[in-house]
Design brief:
The protein is built from nine helices and two strands; from the N terminus they run αααβααβαααα. It has 166 residues and is mainly alpha-helical. The chain has one domain.
Length: 166
């Protein structure tokens, strides 16, 4: 059974790419911090872009995750979940806490999704290993099916090399 919804896995990977793109090459932490601070300020003012990765980017470096097992369990369903429980599993300070409260009031489900995406990004060992193991297991199952059906060359192939034949 999957531990997390595939959409959460996708969004966590997208967040990683967005952070990498924002940092740039070579990494410019000052520029990254300015972008994150601008997002926090915009979300706090009520300017809202309904994008889970923008909200996750604004939150990811500010949140403290207080209940890792429950957050991981909450990642099983992307489209539904208890937003109030999720908000209680994290804490933030200052402008981020203000922003989090404001966004939660108007967009609780998006806030829940963004918190879980940020959590998955910060804790990849909790879910990536199992996801890769499941992919390998699926591949092994497919290989087993092929092997049991393919016990040797078909009669058509044997006929090509038959010295006595046609």
């Amino acid at each position: 059974m999957k531990r997390i919804d595939s959409e959460f896995a996708f969004q966590a990977r997208e967040l990683a790419a967005q952070i990498e793109d924002t940092l740039g090459d070579p990494p410019n932490r000052k520029n990254y911090r300015m972008v994150v601070d601008a997002l926090v300020a915009e979300f706090t003012k009520g300017a809202f872009v309904e994008d889970v990765n923008f909200l996750s980017l604004a939150l990811v470096d500010h949140l403290r995750f207080n209940n890792l097992p429950s957050l991981l369990a909450s990642a099983k369903q992307y489209e539904s979940g208890n937003s109030a429980e999720i908000i209680d599993m994290v804490s933030a300070e200052g402008a981020c806490a203000t922003m989090l409260a404001a966004i939660f009031k108007t967009h609780p489900d998006l806030t829940r999704q963004a918190i879980i995406v940020a959590f998955l990004h910060k804790n990849p060992k909790l879910w990536l290993h199992e996801e890769h193991a499941a992919s390998a297991e699926d591949k092994d199952e497919n290989d087993d099916d092929t092997d049991s059906e393919n016990d040797g060359p078909s009669s058509d192939v044997v006929g090509l090399f038959d010295e006595v034949g046609d």
